Amino acid sequence: MTQQRRGQGPLLRFTKMHGLGNDFMVVDAISQQFRLNPEMIRELANRNFGIGFDQLLVVEPPGLPDVDFRYRIFNADGSEVEQCGNGARCFARFVRDQRLTNKRVIRVQTAKGIIELRISKDGQVLVNMGVPELNPPAIPFAANSEKTVYTVDVEAQTVELSAVSMGNPHGVLVVEDVDTAPVSTLGPLLEKHPRFPARANIGFLQIIDRGHARLRVFERGSGETLACGSGACAAVVAGRLRGLLDERVTVELRGGPLVIEWQGEGSPVMMEGPATTVFDGQLRLPGDTPPRRRKSSRTYKNRA
Ligand SMILES: N[C@@H](CCC[C@H](N)C(=O)O)C(=O)O
């Protein structure tokens, strides 16, 4: 990895946050101007040479009426994505703590639509994650017709998985025990499987009883994380469609529990959980020489 020269560019204020150990660098792009490209994001995400995070969250002014903010999400590999459940809760807490709003119900524009965040008095955040998408081309997932369970050939084996979009693509496998599930081997193979043309987050779901489950997620663009909010929503949708779970489920992730509620097809998925601030910081970005343009690299520039 090439390390960028530091100490010449503008100072960037950021906040380090996490939702059940899924950690974020959160940046206010309303009151400061900066440029980040995928290579810089990868460097900042690096846990040894950078700040270290699973996702970068960027808070922008809204581009639509009746919306409070625009929310952009970048994985540790620099790719921009559509949805992040744990990030949405941290986003809500960040805009309140930074006094960017005093509302308790916040409407946020994401790359896949509008989500609503509700901050309760005890600091928990309730997120309306929207209606899950099960139609294969919209996920996107390659299949001739919509099914609850698909068989997928991966190397020498065949696995069964459900495919769900929560704004971002998920594959969900039901396993006996998450502790012994092949997360680190099957996870990366399925993340990049040709049947998921936009790659996917891969969840390994263990059913404890109809109201309790355990989950580990190998995230697209970040690897296994301690928790994945959209993954927990997708897992409950998959578990409900397979007739294994009730409407309200506590999902135990490696970093702690989330409560997920889904009334069934056509209804939005509700997610409730904590959002934690770790520290505020500032760093000097590399000098103002614009990053070398590469064919595949997109430059992030805020619109403020
Ligand atoms: N950690 C997130 C999901 C972040 C995006 C994901 N890796 C993707 O590429 O879709 C969550 O809490 O939902």
Overview of this structure, please?
The chain is mainly beta. The chain has two domains: 11-129 and 276-281, Diaminopimelate Epimerase, Chain A, domain 1; 136-265, Diaminopimelate Epimerase, Chain A, domain 1. Helices cover 14% and strands 39% of the residues. The strands form two sheets. The protein has an 18-stranded mixed beta sheet that branches. Helix 3 (183-191) links the parallel strand 12 and strand 13. The two termini are 31 Å apart.
Briefly summarize what is shown.
This protein is mainly β and 304 residues long.
Please tag this protein with its features.
diaminopimelate epimerase activity, 304 residues, DAP_epimerase_DapF, binds ligand LBFN2T5F, single chain, 4 helices, cytoplasm, mainly beta, Diaminopimelate Epimerase, Chain A, domain 1, two-stranded antiparallel ribbon, lysine biosynthesis
Q: For the terminal residues, how far apart are their CA atoms?
A: 31 Å
Number of helices, where a helix is a run of at least 4 consecutive DSSP H or I residues: 4
What is the approximate shape? Answer: globular
Count of individual beta strands: 20
- Hetero ligands: ligand LBFN2T5F
Q: Looking at this structure, what is the CATH superfamily of the largest domain?
A: Diaminopimelate Epimerase, Chain A, domain 1
CATH A-level architecture of the largest domain: Roll
